[in-house]
Amino acid sequence: MCQLLGMNCNVPTDICFSFTGFQKRGGETDVHADGWGIAFFEGKGVRLFVDPQPSAQSAIAAFVRNYPIRSLNVIAHIRKATQGVVALENTHPFMRELWGRYWIFAHNGNLPDFNPDFAGEFLPVGNTDSERIFCWMLESLRARFGAHAPEREELFEALAELSCKLSGQGIFNFLLSNGDCLFAHCSTELAYVVRCAPFTVAHLKDEDVSVDFSTLTKATDRVAVIATLPLTDNETWTKMEPGTLWMFHEGEVTLHRPTCPGPCSGRMNQGQK
């Protein structure tokens, strides 16, 4: 399966430290060698880098690792192909426009029988289930809300319902952002850490690199990092429960709940860290 990395902050922040460890998992410390990509939101724009080469050997990944692009929302992906050939058009993250904003999506999992019909506004370019899922989600949101973007909480509830529809079809971990906030759906594995004052030293699992965040941050800074598997070995990461959707805004969890109705359904703790 693939691996996901996301970052959501209350001030523009670079992801160089986390990406240093994540990059190694693309063909060096792990087997995800079928391409990689990363997207940075900057105002209304998006810097998108994708490469079908393994991230551990990619010259583009080396550039990104050493180039401190600052962003409020970042989504990255390293691929181990299950559907679709290894090619640039099948490399995550995927980008589309909806309601005058760019949307970025990356998926870890496999929905082997997901082949919806499309109305034509959002069409997949490659041949992955992941891109089909993304196009179907955006088409469903457009059909539900029309020409005007919903409020953040309404969008969360709609995404929870859409995630529930897919939950029985296979593994469906994803990260999604429109530049305003970041959504994370845990089907099997996702974890997060919130870095805030008092900041400490963090050490990567995949490379012997440490950073003392207290020397790089202000007391009011807050950064949430989401990953398939924890990237550091000296921080407390929170594992997300399978079958839950999470919304991150300004570096913290603002909503999370189970995606499908049940005895524990309904909105859970808001603002939890």
Q: Could you explain the architecture of this structure?
A:
It is built from 4 helices and 15 strands. With 273 residues, it is α+β, with helices and mostly antiparallel strands. It has one domain (3-258): Aminohydrolase, N-terminal nucleophile (Ntn) domain (Glutamine Phosphoribosylpyrophosphate, subunit 1, domain 1). The strands form 3 sheets. A 7-stranded antiparallel beta sheet has the order 3-2-4-1-12-9-13, covered by helices on one side. The protein has a 6-stranded antiparallel beta sheet with strand order 5-6-7-8-14-15, covered by helices on one side. The protein has a two-stranded antiparallel sheet with strand order 10-11. The two termini are 27 Å apart. The model is unreliable at 263-273 (pLDDT under 50).
In short:
With about 270 residues, the protein is of the alpha+beta class. About 20% of the residues lie in helices and about 35% in strands. The protein has one domain: Glutamine Phosphoribosylpyrophosphate, subunit 1, domain 1 (4-Layer Sandwich), CATH 3.60.20.
The whole-number mean of residue pLDDT values reads: 92
> Helix content range of the residues, please?
10-25%
Described by strand count, sense and barrel closure, the largest sheet is:
7 strands, antiparallel
Strand content: 25-35%
CATH fold-level assignment: Glutamine Phosphoribosylpyrophosphate, subunit 1, domain 1
Instruction: Please state the structural category.
Output: alpha+beta
Termini gap:
27 Å
The count of β-strands is 15
Count of discrete alpha- or pi-helical segments spanning 4 or more residues: 4
CATH class reads Alpha Beta
